[in-house]
Design the sequence.
């Protein structure tokens, strides 16, 4: 998905004063002679043009900077991610997503896509011990990318899950000036894990490209995969009951509405990363990835998403929501016929 950041342009006109002949010197014989220096009209025009150039340069320099965790030096430029007018809440999966979230393929299936490559510095972690995940996003010339749009308050969303779809984590790395991202990471259990980097690159011309890349991580040890729970439309987490309504169809944008209840009724949901909820869907088997954006406001007290599944199968849904400044994740198994 490619979004265009609006660009404001300044226009100015310059009027030269009529009858301004100060740029000529009159000789004793009455003939006009051109003065040795530039006339005032030329100087005035040069000053105006110079002012415009300076204003443009200052505008670029004062643009919003992505200083999220960057070391001292030259921080990377970033822009707010905006969707084209008329585009409904949608999936971030394939870079070729269409309106209302229709995507030909889920994202995160490859380490390279759309001319970008996810390059982790290390992929092995000791199970149960905190390590540091470091990686770069590189272009077709193998140079690190340093310009990312701010999407849901962050320039980078990192999803980590074990291949049996347990141990879900939604993390937000910070970037150094050289384009290296880093985040503390603990892989709680041995096994093969999948990491998804969900981001939007900003090109030099302001064009934005949303991409999700995936890479495998490993925690050596005795891997004992867990069976995926059966399909259900309701679950509990930390005393909250979370349920959803909606029937998913392959290739169609279908609304899913999630309700969160606490003691005494509807929970007082708070915005987290700019939205009342974040929904990630992972397909069992190939672990195809969909990050689904919600409606900007609650609908009858519920979080409303538009989900498009690219094919049949079983999916694991992860809903992040915030109450009393604490983020929780409700998980569901969804079967798409």
Sequence:
């Amino acid at each position: 998905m490619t979004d265009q950041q609006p660009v404001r342009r300044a226009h100015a006109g310059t009027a030269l004063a009529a009858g301004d002949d100060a740029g000529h010197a009159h000789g004793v014989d009455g003939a006009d002679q051109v003065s040795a220096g530039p006339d005032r009209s030329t100087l005035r025009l040069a000053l105006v043009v110079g002012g415009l150039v300076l204003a443009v340069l200052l505008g670029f320099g004062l643009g919003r900077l992505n200083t999220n965790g960057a070391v001292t030096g030259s921080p990377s430029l970033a822009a707010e991610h905006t969707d084209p007018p008329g585009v409904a809440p949608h999936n971030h999966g394939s870079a070729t997503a269409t309106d209302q979230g229709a995507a030909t393929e889920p994202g995160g299936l490859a380490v390279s896509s759309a001319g970008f490559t996810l390059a982790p510095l290390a992929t092995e972690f000791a199970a149960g011990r905190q390590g540091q995940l470091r990686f770069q996003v590189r272009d077709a010339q193998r140079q690190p990318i340093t310009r990312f749009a701010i999407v849901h308050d962050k320039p980078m969303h990192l999803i980590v899950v074990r291949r049996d779809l347990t141990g879900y984590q939604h993390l937000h790395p910070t970037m150094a000036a050289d384009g290296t991202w880093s985040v503390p990471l603990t892989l709680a259990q041995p096994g093969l894990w999948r990491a998804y980097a969900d981001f939007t690159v900003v090109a030099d011309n302001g064009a934005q490209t949303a991409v999700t890349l995936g890479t495998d991580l490993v925690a050596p040890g005795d891997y004992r995969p867990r069976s995926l729970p059966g399909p259900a439309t309701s679950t509990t987490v930390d005393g909250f009951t979370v349920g959803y309504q909606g029937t998913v169809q392959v290739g169609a944008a279908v609304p899913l509405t999630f309700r969160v209840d606490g003691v005494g009724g509807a929970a007082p949901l708070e915005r987290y990363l700019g939205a009342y909820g974040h929904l990630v869907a992972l397909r069992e088997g190939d672990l195809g990835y969909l990050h689904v954006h919600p409606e900007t406001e609650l609908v009858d007290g519920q979080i409303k998403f538009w989900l498009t599944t690219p094919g049949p199968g079983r999916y694991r849904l992860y809903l992040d929501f915030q109450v009393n400044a604490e983020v929780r994740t409700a998980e569901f198994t969804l079967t798409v016929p």
Observations:
- Residues 1-38, 45-77, 81-90, 94-104 have pLDDT under 50 and may be disordered.
- DSSP finds one helix and 24 strands in the chain.
- Residues 40-61 form the longest helix (22 residues).
- The helical segments are 40-61.
